[in-house]
Amino acid sequence: MKFKNWLIVILLFLLTGINAQIKNPVKFKFSVNDLGNNQYEAVLNATLDTGWHLYSRDIPEDTGIPTEYKVSGKNIETIGKFEEVGKKHKEFSEAFGGTIVYYSNAVGFKQKFKLKDATKPSDVVAEIMYQTCDDRVCLAPNTLEFTNKITPKASAEKPEEILPIATQDSVKSTETIVESAPKNEIIVTEASKLDPKNLKIETIDFKKPLTNCGTAVVEASENYWTYLLLGFLGGLIALLTPCVFPMIPLTVSFFTKGAKDKAKGKRDAIVYGFFILLIFVLISLPFHIIDGIAGNIFNDISTSPWLNIVFFIIFIFFAGSFFGYYDITLPSAIANKSSKAEEAGGIIGIFFMALTLVIVSFSCTGPILGSLLGSAVTGSTNVPMLLTFALAGFGVAWAIVFGLLALFPQALQSLPKSGGWMNTVKVILGFIELALALKFLSKADLVTKTFMLKRELFIAIWIIIAIGLTLYLFGIIKFPHDDKKPKISLTRKIFGILGIGFIVYLIQGLFPSDRPKLQLLSGILPPVNVSYFHDEKDGILGMHPEHDFFKAIDLAKKENKPILIDFTGYGCENCRKMEEFVWSEPDILPILQNDVVLASLYVDDKEELPEAEKTKIDMGEGQMKKVNTIGDRWSLFQQVNFNNNSQPHYVLIMPDGKVINTPVSGYMPKEDFKQFLECGVNYFKNNK
User: Fold this and answer.
1) Read out DSSP for 477-512?
2) 111, HSE (Cβ side, Cα atoms, 13 Å)
3) N or C: which end of the chain has fewer CB within 10 A?
4) Quick one: CA dihedral 567, 573, 579, 581, positive or negative?
């Protein structure tokens, strides 16, 4: 396939695969056969979608994941090892460097067992751990459980045996009652008969609200264009760093002066810019693949305290690099190979020129790109799309600069000369990295509910960082790559004055207030109730929401009020913005305090549930989810009842569980949220 055709294939994949959903290419059916003489056979049949295969247990080491099939029970003793029944395929895999063994279309797994006490009924539990692949991707290993119940009955005959679908043999059997135990599926219950282990509520149907009022409120979505703009600004800033800026005139001159045909030189420069954009967009490709395989993985890891601590450390590390104490670079062999590939000439040579630029500039661009990654991974439910837009914005900035300067080379004369100012840009970025690092530490603190990093302490640390930046801008403190006697330019002095203004702005946040301050930093700072002047137990804005949906239902019936379900998270930035600058408004807060029962359900609460309340939920098509923490419960509750996993997400329901009006999501203007609330509350008052 020609190089340009490969590019078309890649672009089509990006356009069609960015919204990949959770894949379930294999379906299972579990049954038990009575072989007579107190011997049974647990049979698990697997049917695979076309193009997919499932690895055998006999697959060589260091290749795929071998399938494991286990049968257990209190009254069960297995006999021998399990068998695989089906057409086994063997082929050499270049990726693994060895022969893989797999099944396609269908396969059966059989495990013989006997009852320790042949007179007692027994639950038969089968567990399979497997991995499925097609020609493009392998899905994450999955583990499923199935349960059947057998009740022995003395008889000379056996019923017809249920065989693995992969075999056509027949076996005679004596009569045995084989009962299928209820699956661990989502059990539907009425709101009046609530059980914390049953998360699907029969009366909840968000697609059929009781009223259409308030439907003019548009559900908020991820602001992709904001990330595109942030990426674009990050790209422009990266162009000003010592790793990139000196290369601009050299690269542009190569195309405008090095080509015999000036028109061709300009065309090649534009192609060069396009390849820069393409390379940055392709960096986001692995995240789309991971999201397609593991579904909600980024939503899960974004609330992980350990991940946020790792990002905190990484950002501190990035700051040290920007300060000049060390460089972060890719292995030189990668740059050497890419540079050598430029000799191919033509389109391919231009592509590798662009790739070489991206690689050699990594010591300056790496921390900026890492910041975009950290912001997207820990602050969004659609990480791959946000990264694609952010990286596209980054690439567009570079493509525009290189392309326009190639078309108008005379503009090179207006560019500032390389000098110490480029290191100043890097050091400023280092201070910004230090400030942003604190955001991840705060999120870990909130999720673990230690609440050690109070709002005032957070602000005080930012003030110290801002003071350090201001002193640097005025030349009072220096870093390794600064001139010994730097000349403080007018631009540095202006930024230094702005730094003083920012310090003054931050200081007001150190003092208690009835209304939240520092609106520009909303979502970055800890919540207002995580403060030395407030107790976390004082609630949100003086309110004490229920944190259990089932208790909220009971309270709503007692007080005869509708319930406002607030799906939120300790690490949710937009949730904090809604609470601090929408909920706190004088025409919103009284509604929340007096007219509804507020149920704030934290989907990232890591507190373990009591053992009696832990359970497993069948999400359909063989996908099992464990409910071990409070956050697991409310995250799945939101998904199975409202088909949504973003926060904040607001739902107004009647005490009997019926949805009043269309739910809304995300940060929104006060008037939109007010319209949503008044719509539901007025309907409830008129239809008590």
Assistant:
1) S--TTS-SS----HHHHHHHHHHHHHHHHHHGGGS-
2) 21
3) N
4) negative
618, with CB counted inside 10 A (0-12, 13-18, 19+), is: middle
Q: 163 in helix, strand or coil?
A: coil
Question: CA–CA separation, 672 vs 677, rounded Å?
Answer: 9
* Backbone φ and ψ of 90, nearest 5°: -130, 135
Which of these, 274, 281, 273, 353, lies nearest to 12 by C-alpha position?
Answer: 281
Rounded distance between C-alpha atoms, residue 65 and residue 426, angstroms: 45
Amino acid at 7: L
Rg, the chain, Cα only: 31
DSSP 443-464: HHHHHTT---S-HHHHHHHHHH
CA 98 to chain centre: 34
CA distance 173 to 158: 4
pLDDT per residue as tens digits for the range 310-331: 888 988 988 888 888 887 766 6
pLDDT in tens, 385-441: 878 888 898 889 888 887 777 777 777 777 777 677 788 888 998 898 899 889 889
* 590 phi, psi to nearest 5 deg: -60, -35
User: What's the pTM?
Assistant: 0.52
pLDDT value at position 376?
A: 61
Pick left, alpha or beta for residue 40 (phi over 0 → left; psi -120 to 50 → alpha; otherwise beta): beta
At 493-548, the pLDDT tens digits run 999 999 999 999 999 989 877 666 787 787 678 877 788 887 666 667 778 899 99
Which is nearest to 439 in space by CA: 533, 603, 322, 315? 315
Whether the Cβ atoms of residue 102 and residue 59 lie closer than 8 Å to each other = yes
